[in-house]
Amino acid sequence: MSSRAKKIFLIMSVVVPFVIYSAVYYAPIIRNAPFQEKYFVSLEYRWGTGEKLENSYNSTSGEFIYVNKNDSLVRKNIKLDVRDVKYLDSIADVQGFWNLPSVIANNESELNDKRQLRYVIRFNYQKKSKEVTYFPSFNGNEKMKSAASKMQKEIELTLIDKEEEAK
After folding, report:
1. In sequence order, what DSSP letters do the residues of the chain get, joined into one string?
2. What is the number of alpha carbons within 13 Å of residue 30 lying toward its C-beta?
3. In whole angstroms, what is the distance from residue 5 CA to residue 10 CA?
4. What is the model's pTM?
5. What is the DSSP string of 83-94?
6. What confidence tier does 120 reach under pLDDT thresholds 50, 70, 90?
7. How far is Cα 9 from Cα 22, in angstroms, rounded to an integer?
8. Beta-carbon neighbour count of residue 66 at 10 Å?
9. Is the pLDDT of residue 28 over 80?
10. Do the bridges between strand 129-134 and strand 103-104 make them parallel or antiparallel, or are there none, so unpaired?
11. What band does 61 get if pLDDT is binned at 50, 70 and 90?
């Protein structure tokens, strides 16, 4: 084997696999680059049953609407501060929210069932947005369920804390 052939063989057996590995490893990171806290625009969070989800929060307007224990519609204005945005964005990163499918449900019939509780979480950024509809009755992939559930609970706890601060 000539010296030139040895160099080509070395490049093909070491450098090319390294480049392919790097591309595969960094592709999800590059794809999720627009989901950064500095590009955050708004958070939309809705929950309830059926098509029209009666409970909602929109961080742009600060409008927080929910039905309380007495079946009364409560309207409040709650603004998220920079610390809250950073916290929720970091939780989304840790939980892998950006990699979740847009719908986490058992089957098509569950989507059409008007009695099923569902949560819709939407993060809006300057160039991209990510919306996930999560059904708590989902019994598939445990990691997906855990990630969506954790994200939903953290948003809910943040809103409850902000509501308590406003009192």
Report:
1. --HHHHHHHHIIIIIHHHHHHHHHHHHHHHHTTT--GGGEEEEEEEEEESSS--EEEETTTTEEEEE-TTS-EEEEE----HHHHHHHHHHHHHHTGGGS-SEE-S-HHHHH-TTSEEEEEEEEESS-EEEEEE-TT--S-HHHHHHHHHHHHHHHHHHHHHHHHH-
2. 6
3. 9
4. 0.77
5. HHHHHHHHHHHH
6. very high
7. 20
8. 17
9. no
10. parallel
11. very high
Nearest to 75 by CA among 164, 158, 163, 165: 163
Residue pointed to by tokens 């840790």 = 94
The span from the CA of 54 to the CA of 156, in Å, is 15
Q: What is the dihedral of CA 99, 101, 105, 111, to 10 degrees?
A: 150
Query: In this structure, what token pair is assigned to residue 110?
Result: 């569950």
Copy the structure tokens of residue 63.
């409008």
What is the distance between the alpha carbons of residues 107 and 102, in angstroms, rounded to a whole number?
13
Q: For residues 97 and 119, what is the distance between their CA atoms, to the nearest angstrom? A: 14
